[in-house]
């Protein structure tokens, strides 16, 4: 649902901040006031192509922001796949500057216009001028029919799509295995060489670290031996100044001679004796370490050569020995696959044929359900069209077989119609005006209202060429659909406007020699005046006000009956 819309420097709009509600949101205003600018701003927000001409005169950029409440798993999946954090509230922004460059963001993350359009399909369905019509996208025809086919069909379609995705993966693997024979031979030579090179190295995890430590010791052996000897001498063999070991022994003797006078002195002596014995252990370790070092230039050369080999392999196959060994396992498996490719290809071809057979069986079931449902959908839509003033319209849902299986089965679905008997059925774009197209979509939405997952519908021009009872019928259908959907509708008919759950008035005026479009949310008394204007023109009288109040009372009662 569209919660908020913020528009700045867009066409005639200086700044508009709108809060929409659930149900039926009506936008009205005098001809030329710029009612469709609001719809245009939403189109722009969701990826519609616009030039810099839409920037308000004298400004550097135009900006539109929409705040949406979204509860759609597929929408959330789309965002997550593109690295965008999701929540129930999603903020979409788009800005265009004087260079014609636009920047789009979803939840603060910059996105492409393509992703913006994909996301928009889950949020809003716009019906008005042809270029904004989802009905002109034949992919939507199948979606509409399928949504009318029931839950068992949806489960069947889900199963088909999963198997179709699996089949695509099988075909991709087969294409790799069926690669050019010369390429396979070259690849086998390369893999064999790499496997041999890594295998002969006989790598052990952690050996590079151990070798580096040993190399460090050998390379600095002279310094290590010299300092160990000096340490040993100062601790144990010093004669001129005395060594630490002997001096500590003297200290123990002095304490021993006086310990009888105070038990604290005895404790000191005991502690010093402990240190004395610990020092002797350390001295022995120093001597053993010193004696163990035997500088061998050949060993150092061998270690350096081994480390050079390991580092060369790291540069080629991985940054650690563990990564090199993982790569080794991977290329061994790849070589094995290539060597067994004929056998694997045969097995995968069998698997592919099994999948194709199973998919054709599921697709045949889907086709049968679609064809039966197409008749029901046709009848239901024609019934709604008659109710909406298109009494002679003939609508057809055609289910035609594809040349080969596709992502949605073996069918293409097309909507065709004629508004006049005797005329041939044609695609909707060839036979329907903007207003008629909106009524067709209103009819369709009435039929599929309970299963339609797009939360917000926008109708522009839906009242073109209608009046009287037809206008009332359109209004009632919109109230019905608004029970489960949010609707934004631009209208000039009081019959439709009176049904508003929220009513916005769009006005145009001159401010400092600049034309400005504003949008005002109407309270009851203002709504009465606006309906009176729509009923009677520029001059509002008490008669038209009373008529307006009566319309609002009747509309309130009718809405209650329709929705309860």
From TrEMBL:
<keyword id="KW-0227">DNA damage</keyword>
<dbReference type="GO" id="GO:0043590">
    <property type="term" value="C:bacterial nucleoid"/>
</dbReference>
<dbReference type="InterPro" id="IPR004604">
    <property type="entry name" value="DNA_recomb/repair_RecN"/>
</dbReference>
<feature type="coiled-coil region">
    <location>
        <begin position="153"/>
        <end position="180"/>
    </location>
</feature>
<protein>
    <recommendedName>
        <fullName>DNA repair protein RecN</fullName>
    </recommendedName>
</protein>
<dbReference type="GO" id="GO:0006281">
    <property type="term" value="P:DNA repair"/>
</dbReference>
<comment type="function">
    <text>May be involved in recombinational repair of damaged DNA.</text>
</comment>
<keyword id="KW-0547">Nucleotide-binding</keyword>
<keyword id="KW-0234">DNA repair</keyword>
<dbReference type="Pfam" id="PF02463">
    <property type="entry name" value="SMC_N"/>
</dbReference>
<dbReference type="GO" id="GO:0009432">
    <property type="term" value="P:SOS response"/>
</dbReference>
<dbReference type="InterPro" id="IPR003395">
    <property type="entry name" value="RecF/RecN/SMC_N"/>
</dbReference>
<comment type="similarity">
    <text>Belongs to the RecN family.</text>
</comment>
<keyword id="KW-0067">ATP-binding</keyword>
<dbReference type="GO" id="GO:0005524">
    <property type="term" value="F:ATP binding"/>
</dbReference>
<dbReference type="InterPro" id="IPR027417">
    <property type="entry name" value="P-loop_NTPase"/>
</dbReference>
<feature type="coiled-coil region">
    <location>
        <begin position="321"/>
        <end position="372"/>
    </location>
</feature>
<feature type="domain" description="RecF/RecN/SMC N-terminal">
    <location>
        <begin position="2"/>
        <end position="508"/>
    </location>
</feature>
<keyword id="KW-0175">Coiled coil</keyword>
<dbReference type="GO" id="GO:0006310">
    <property type="term" value="P:DNA recombination"/>
</dbReference>
């Amino acid at each position: 649902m569209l919660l908020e819309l913020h528009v700045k420097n867009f066409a005639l709009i200086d700044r508009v901040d709108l809060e929409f509600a659930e149900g039926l949101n009506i936008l009205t205003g005098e001809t030329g006031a710029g009612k469709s600018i609001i719809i245009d701003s939403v189109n722009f927000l969701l990826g519609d192509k616009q030039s810099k001409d839409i920037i308000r005169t004298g400004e550097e950029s135009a900006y539109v922001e929409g705040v949406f409440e979204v509860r759609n798993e597929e929408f959330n999946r789309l965002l997550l796949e593109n690295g965008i954090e999701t929540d129930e509230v999603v903020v979409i922004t788009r800005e265009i500057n004087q260079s014609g460059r636009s920047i789009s963001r979803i939840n603060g993350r910059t996105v492409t216009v393509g992703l913006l359009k994909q996301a928009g399909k889950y949020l809003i369905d716009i019906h008005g001028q042809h270029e904004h019509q989802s009905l002109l996208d034949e992919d939507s025809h199948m979606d509409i029919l399928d949504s009318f086919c029931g839950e068992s069909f949806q489960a069947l379609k889900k199963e088909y799509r999963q198997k179709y995705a699996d089949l695509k993966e099988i075909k991709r693997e087969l294409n790799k295995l069926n690669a050019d024979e010369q390429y396979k031979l070259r690849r086998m030579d390369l893999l064999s060489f790499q496997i041999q090179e890594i295998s002969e190295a006989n790598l052990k995890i952690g050996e590079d670290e151990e070798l580096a430590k040993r190399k460090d010791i050998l390379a600095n052996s002279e310094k290590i031996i010299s300092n160990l000897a000096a340490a040993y001498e100062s601790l144990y063999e010093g004669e001129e100044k005395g060594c630490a070991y002997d001096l500590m022994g003297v200290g123990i003797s002095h304490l021993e001679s006086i310990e009888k006078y105070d038990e604290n002195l005895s404790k000191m002596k005991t502690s010093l004796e402990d240190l004395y014995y610990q020092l002797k252990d350390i001295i022995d370790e120093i001597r053993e370490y010193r004696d163990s070092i035997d500088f061998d230039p050949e060993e150092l050369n061998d270690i350096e050569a081994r480390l050079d080999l390991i580092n060369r392999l790291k540069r080629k196959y991985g940054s650690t020995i563990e990564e090199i060994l993982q790569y080794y396992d991977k290329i061994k498996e790849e070589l094995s696959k290539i060597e067994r490719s004929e056998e694997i290809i045969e097995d995968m071809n069998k698997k592919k044929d099994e999948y194709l057979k199973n998919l054709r069986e599921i697709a045949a079931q889907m086709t049968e359900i679609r064809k039966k449902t197409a008749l029901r959908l046709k009848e239901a839509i024609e019934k709604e069209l008659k109710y909406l003033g298109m009494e002679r319209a003939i609508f057809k849902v055609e289910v035609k077989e594809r040349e080969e299986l596709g992502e949605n089965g073996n069918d293409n679905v097309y909507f065709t119609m004629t508004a006049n008997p005797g005329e041939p059925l044609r695609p909707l774009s060839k036979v329907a005006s903007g207003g008629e197209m909106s009524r067709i979509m209103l009819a369709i939405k009435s039929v599929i209202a309970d299963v339609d997952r797009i939360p917000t519908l926008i109708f522009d021009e839906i009242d073109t060429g209608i009046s009287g009872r037809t206008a009332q019928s359109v209004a009632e259908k919109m109230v019905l659909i608004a029970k489960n959907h949010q609707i934004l509708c631009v209208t000039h008919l009081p019959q439709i406007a009176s049904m508003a759950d929220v009513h916005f008035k769009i006005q145009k005026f001159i401010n400092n020699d600049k034309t400005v479009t504003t949008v005002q949310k109407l309270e009851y008394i203002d709504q009465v005046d606006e309906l009176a204007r729509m009923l009677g023109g520029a001059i509002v009288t008490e008669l038209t006000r009373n008529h307006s109040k009566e319309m609002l009372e009747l509309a309130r009662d009718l809405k209650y009956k329709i929705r309860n």
